């Protein structure tokens, strides 16, 4: 099977990658990234993430989704994203050198987004079969190759990817200064959010922050929960499963424009117009 067979409108990524329910695990994806020493240092020294977090997310998420939904021009989108990271390098607070385009660092950023999408869909939609997970993983590798970054040490298949995730969570991730900042951020979200009326956002920002953190904690690797000092009980797990059922029920009655991201809806319209 070639990469051409793994991308575009027939792919599973096309079906699930633009699902807005993934946004409920966005804090989780951010925490996984910021706990990586190289990624955390890059964000700390080369961005104003905590000064304008929502603005950064609004800019970044559509571009990342474009690697799936800008088909057949997705390679140009991927190369543009890679270009943003050429100058993101330096030395972290422990004296360790980092570069955003280091193969291990760059793949971890991609891996967290992919794995969070899979986790969200299994929580809010349905469990995937092993064959579907393998298909999804091969699709994400096809997308990753578009970035033009070394494939060195990239797991070859889904079982190897699961082992890689387990190793990263148990052995490599740490509480970096920016990860610690994110943990505090959920209790004190920004005062405004792009596209949301200020009075409405102020009313819901703290409950929303607590909810997103709770869902994140519940879907983390147990080793990471322990590392960040969070507990998760059987009662929490039952509540999470109930919450997931509510999300799924609400999602089915939402209009299409609220269920899928703008980038994915634009791609669907292009395909429909060309049919």
TrEMBL record:
GO terms for molecular function: oxidoreductase activity. Pfam families: MPAB_Lcp_cat. Coiled coil: none annotated. It comes from the Bacteria. InterPro entries: MPAB/Lcp_cat_dom. Signal peptide: none annotated. Residues 14-249 form the ER-bound oxygenase mpaB/mpaB'/Rubber oxygenase catalytic domain. PANTHER family: BLR2777 PROTEIN, ER-BOUND OXYGENASE MPAB_MPAB'_RUBBER OXYGENASE CATALYTIC DOMAIN-CONTAINING PROTEIN. This is ER-bound oxygenase mpaB/mpaB'/Rubber oxygenase catalytic domain-containing protein.
